[in-house]
# Entry
Amino acid sequence: LVADYGEVDVRVPASSPEEEQGSLVFDTAKLRVEIRHEPCRDSMRGDLWPAAVTVTRQGAAWHGCGMFL
# Structure
């Protein structure tokens, strides 16, 4: 995770996701990443993406959109 214009830089090994209430969740000691299969509109550009993503670290959360590669 690189966030807040580079002020936050956290790297963790890849983990296997677990399914929670229809979402894919990657949960490590440092980060939690939740990917929900629902349309997400990018607030900056207005683009529509197929997934909504939330990354949580030490109580701070970042919300955005994404797609599966």
Remarks:
- The chain has a mean pLDDT of 92.
- The beta strands are 2-3, 8-9, 18-20, 23-27, 32-36, 40-41, 48-49, 51-57, 60-66.
